[in-house]
Amino acid sequence: MNKQIELLAPGGDVEAIKGAIVAGANAVYCGLDVFNARNRATNLSFDELCGVLRLAHQHDCEVFLTLNVVILEQELPSLIKLLNKLVNSGLDGIIVQDLGTFNLVKKYFPSLDLHASTQLTTHNEGQIQFLSKIGASRVNLSRELNLDEVKSLTRFAHDHDVLTEVFVHGSLCIAFSGQCYSSSVSVGNSGNRGRCSQACRDEYETTATGNNFPLNLKDNSAYFDLPELVNAGVDSLKIEGRIKGAHYVYTVVDSWRKQMDKFEQTGRLLEDDSNLHKVFNRDFTNSFLKGDLTKDMFIDNPRDHSVEHAVTKSQAVSIVHIHKAKQDLYEDKNKIGDELADKIKGLNIDKQQLNLVFSGQVGEPLVLTIQVKTANGQDETTHVIESAEPLKNPTQSTLDTNAIKKRFKGFNKARYTIEAIDFSRLADNISLPFKELARLKNKAAFLLNDSVEILRDVDVPPLLNHPKVEEGSSIDKKPSMSILIADEKDLHLCEVTEADIYFKLPESFKKGCTKYIDLFLQNPRLIPWFPAVLIGKDYQEAVNVLKHVRPKRIVTNNTGIAYKAFEMGIDWVAGPFLNTTNSYALLTLQETLNCSGAFISNEINRMQIKNIARPKNFKLLYSIYHPILMMTSRQCFFQQTVGCKKPSIEDGCMLKCQKATTITNVKGVSFAIDKQKGGYPSIYNDEQFLNLDVVNDLADLFDEFFIDLTNIGAGSKEEQNKRQLIDSFEQIISGQKAAKQQLNQMVPVSTMAQYRQGL
């Protein structure tokens, strides 16, 4: 290898982090018990984080903290308080999903290094530019990308001074990260808040292809793809697994460390990956990286595959031989466990102990000797500091020991504990200006912070809540309405409403096709609506639409298109799949990328919405009627449900395939699987989202209420009379409550549970 690639390991608890360190990780990522996307992990207290930082840095290992959830408005004070602590912790970086956190850190905590989470769904060049613009120094590339795409994006990222990391081992989500709402919709536990209940691992009624776990993917392992990853130029190889234990983390990191060292030293790979099969796994696949999306990526069992692998590898058939294969596996696991225990037995993250010795006589400086000891009492470091002014006989007040203790008790915090304060060598009846005592304390704090300047707490001022955007010469108090269509046969709706009409572009385009360019040029009233996922040539074709149409305004759910709109000076609105949940997210979009408005996330409730502060001249939008997307995937949902004759997904599948089916879980709840021409396979809830309460609750907040009339994700439901729907929604928005009953009859299978429960 020409450069050392970082091996980035998960750390769900202290023991797992120790395992990663002794196994040879270059960096670990871990979470506190707040604001992180693995609530099911044990996670760390702040005191433990400080101990982990000291231990890791002693072993030349960096530590990145996961703050990778969306932040709610009422949580901003707690987040700011935490950031004030983190800037003095020695942390090497924070991993962030929330767009508002980027704004806060860039403005008030610029010493913190920002990494873009996998939850930001990074898969095209524009997204890298977007994330660089808002402050990210590195991005996690979507794990659905293939090696050619990884190589291309890494080269582009390096040209823009951005590092890339790629998941190379561990669990695979079938959905695009950051674009999965299945857990949120089905059981109220949002993946955007670290509460994913893994609905993709659920059991379903047996499908036509004979599968009971049709959404369950094998685990990711690129163990033998290391040369290609090196050639792609990626900066960090990331292992998934913060809910896994120390035994798992140690085994996987140790295997990868040996593989990377072998390749660096010899240019060849180890052929033995047997240890990876001895810890939890669902069998392995590298099909996303290889771009070979077959049904072999799936496994009809979400549980541990290690025993089955051991039995198969040993070719055991008889009960005796199967028992022996299992026993051999357990013995091997125990050996690895013993090896781990032996290596970490001397590692300690307990607070270091301080002995403070004050000495001095009248006419001499006040001397502070700081003895830093390890948790087991062994001397580690000694610092000696003197006051600039000598001690004097008191004229007014005496410097007593209680005043000194009060001044220095602040060291009894996360990193240190004061074991003793010794005044035996300090004269009685002395005086020293308090400013000198403060200077002495500040110098001590500097030395105890690894000779790094202590940053004062930042007081972030409250944001102003600005009025609605002016329409014409006055402020229109009532929200307007907008609709979304995706089929030219619905163009006649332009004639029956004055609402803004968005036209949904597909996720895949035929190369060089001008169909959508012509559509927008011939129908200037249509406002382009860009999807969340645009990869490779599809992103380039979407950019071509922008370049040739030059629309006055767009809505985009893709940050790459947002960046291009900003670059071209096109007015753009952030779509509902950008997951905006707080005022600072809106500021990030407006101040950094000249965004003119944003949809507020449908995952949050009335109380979580109402206190969001609107930026000046910024529109707030909200969807009151739409199909509820649960997940979108680059894989094919039909291979494991109704079956498909094609052995793997081909280039033409995106453009040509148009299928639909349903799956039903063991609780009897059905979900619609929908594949539109030019779209990725998606799963939708059986219920439509219909929220008429928000029109009464928050009409003063929102500028625009939105309804989706695309029919996408409707499953077997009868197509609605769209003219009638438009008329009824217009009545509701204008304040005619009588239309509510009619709408509830027209949309009998609906929910607004997310608006009630929130995040």
UniProtKB/TrEMBL annotation:
Q: Name one Pfam family in it.
A: DUF3656
Q: Report the coiled-coil segments.
A: none
Note the superkingdom of the native organism.
Bacteria
In its UniProt entry, the species of origin is given as Cycloclasticus pugetii
Name of the protein in question: Peptidase U32
Q: PANTHER family this protein is in?
A: 23S RRNA 5-HYDROXYCYTIDINE C2501 SYNTHASE, PEPTIDASE U32 FAMILY
Lineage here is: Bacteria, Pseudomonadati, Pseudomonadota, Gammaproteobacteria, Thiotrichales
Segments forming domain Peptidase U32 collagenase: 336-445
